[in-house]
């Protein structure tokens, strides 16, 4: 039985549905002419060959129109779970697709960041019905959406704080222009691109939003549109990820491991991961990816999650240069991505869409228990919902990192013992192995159902 995706309802040209575990896109009558042009122009085949668009095959046609059989990505993250460079690359891909489309007399009718996903640490476009036929003088109607979904968050992350990306989770339509203009520093009014694309754009929108005269379709010659796109592309290409200091970006330069104990831990993780080939592994609290990279050698896909934006930036660069099967993800386990959007089912929560064969929680659990005040039962429940195989690390109360978190509150966390943690995990996992990391006082614990 066909099941229409709850996130696919906004486009009158088509929708995505699932059948027997496979993904399909139904082209509707409103989108048939554009899709025919899309096929005949060869742009789809060209973009797929370049790895810029998700592959598809035409799987026949019904009374509504063509049906496309879509390739399914191993895992999809959302824009509010990306690092700065991911959002930047997704923006540049959208501009490049606009340029490619115009060369084939087509144009992108929308420019949502949710139309882009990451595969092998490269952006890939998902929405095959975003292309419509271009007519000379047609403006880019999606320019405002592009600004709200890409330009405003990128500038806020660079000029204000990396955490401003979280505003995309509050409004999946994008960060409003007036809010972006209000939050940006005063000196951005003196910078031509931010002045044009954000500040003046916001003022224009406020002044003319209710003016009927402004509702008339304006003309924009193709030459000027291409110049606008080239300007945006050059500007965004020049933006650098901010060097904002964060708490855990330099964790491995300041911890309680000796060189020998750290090497022992790496060997133990390698042995755990190599025990059997896995399709998907999750590394929670991945930091800059030392153990993620080890895991990536033994798994098809590794979801590397961390709440530190600089760490996720490092994970993304690691995936681009050394292990393309790494899927970096910005995630705060104390407040993970929820079900959001229309009827709270337009975008799935982290826990709903994330299942794996095994999950790592190295140097993580004491943060959940002490900083987050999680109960032992809640900690176990998290791992139980994610995977049947678990490798976690117990960091005792006397460890220097734990002491930094406790700050004189030892009496509150007297249940934080190796014995109690083992007992809690054995409520859900029947087999377990405990291995002491030499010269550290820390313990690795492997559990299996």
Under the CATH scheme, the architecture of the largest domain is: 3-Layer(aba) Sandwich
Can you identify the CATH superfamily of the largest domain? Vaccinia Virus protein VP39
> Would you report the number of β strands?
16
Low confidence ranges:
none
Q: In the residues, how many domains can be counted?
A: 2
Write up this protein.
- The protein folds into two domains: 80-113 and 137-238, no CATH class; 251-448, Rossmann fold (3-Layer(aba) Sandwich), CATH 3.40.50.150.
- The protein contains 16 helices and 16 strands.
- Strands 12-11-10-13-14-16-15 form a seven-stranded mixed sheet, with helices on both faces. Strands 1-2-3-5-4 form a five-stranded antiparallel sheet. The chain has a two-stranded antiparallel sheet with strand order 6-9.
- With 449 residues, the chain is an alpha/beta fold.
Walk me through the topology.
Blueprint: E1 3-4, E2 14-19, E3 22-27, H1 29-41, H2 43-49, E4 56-61, E5 66-70, H3 84-103, E6 106-108, E7 116-119, E8 122-125, E9 131-133, H4 143-159, H5 167-170, H6 177-183, H7 192-208, H8 222-238, H9 259-273, E10 278-284, H10 290-296, E11 299-306, H11 309-321, E12 326-330, H12 350-353, E13 358-361, H13 365-371, H14 376-386, E14 389-394, H15 400-406, H16 418-425, E15 431-436, E16 443-448
Parallel strand pairs: 10-11, 10-13, 11-12, 13-14
Antiparallel strand pairs: 1-2, 2-3, 3-5, 4-5, 6-9, 7-8, 14-16, 15-16
Structure described in brief:
This protein is of the alpha/beta class and 449 residues long.
List keywords for this structure.
Rossmann fold; 449 residues; alpha/beta; 18% strand; five-stranded antiparallel β-sheet; 2 domains; 16 helices; seven-stranded mixed β-sheet; single chain
């Amino acid at each position: 039985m066909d099941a229409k995706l709850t996130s696919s309802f906004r486009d009158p040209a088509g929708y995505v549905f699932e059948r027997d575990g496979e993904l399909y896109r139904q082209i509707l009558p409103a989108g048939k002419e554009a899709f025919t042009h899309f096929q005949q122009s060869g742009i789809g085949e060209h973009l797929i060959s370049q790895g810029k668009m998700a592959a598809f095959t035409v799987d026949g046609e019904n009374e509504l129109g063509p049906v496309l059989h879509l390739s399914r990505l191993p895992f999809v993250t959302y824009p509010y779970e990306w690092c700065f460079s991911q959002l930047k690359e997704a923006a540049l891909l959208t501009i490049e697709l606009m340029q490619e489309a115009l060369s084939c007399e087509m144009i992108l009718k929308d420019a949502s960041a949710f139309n882009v996903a990451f595969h092998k640490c490269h952006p890939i476009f998902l929405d095959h019905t975003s292309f419509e036929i271009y007519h000379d003088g047609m403006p880019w109607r999606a320019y405002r959406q592009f600004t709200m979904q890409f330009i405003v968050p990128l500038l806020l992350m660079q000029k204000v704080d990396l955490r401003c990306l979280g505003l995309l989770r509050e409004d999946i339509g994008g960060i409003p222009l007036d809010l972006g203009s209000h939050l940006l520093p005063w000196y951005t009014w003196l910078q031509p691109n931010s002045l044009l694309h954000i500040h003046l754009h916001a003022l224009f929108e406020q002044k003319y939003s209710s003016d009927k005269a402004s509702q008339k379709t304006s003309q924009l010659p193709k030459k000027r549109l291409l110049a606008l796109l080239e300007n945006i592309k050059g500007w965004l290409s020049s933006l650098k990820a901010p060097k904002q200091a964060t708490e855990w970006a330099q964790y491995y330069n300041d911890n309680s491991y000796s060189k020998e104990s750290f090497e022992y831990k790496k060997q133990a993780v390698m042995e755990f991961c190599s025990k059997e080939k896995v399709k998907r592994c999750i590394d929670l609290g991945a930091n800059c990816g030392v153990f993620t990279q080890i895991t990536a050698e033994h798994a098809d896909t590794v979801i590397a999650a961390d709440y530190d934006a600089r760490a996720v930036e490092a994970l993304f660069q690691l995936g681009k240069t050394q292990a393309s099967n790494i899927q970096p993800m910005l995630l705060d386990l104390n407040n993970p991505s929820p079900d959001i959007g229309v009827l709270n089912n337009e975008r799935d929560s982290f826990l709903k869409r994330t299942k794996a064969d095994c999950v790592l929680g190295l140097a993580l659990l004491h943060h959940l228990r002490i900083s987050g005040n999680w109960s032992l039962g809640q900690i176990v429940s998290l791992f139980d919902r994610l995977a049947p195989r678990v490798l976690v690390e117990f960091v005792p109360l006397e460890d220097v990192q734990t002491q930094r978190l406790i700050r004189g509150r030892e009496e509150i966390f007297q249940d934080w013992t190796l014995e109690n943690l083992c007992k809690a995990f054995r409520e859900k996992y029947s087999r377990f192995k405990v291995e002491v990391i030499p010269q550290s006082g820390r313990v690795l614990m492997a559990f299996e159902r």
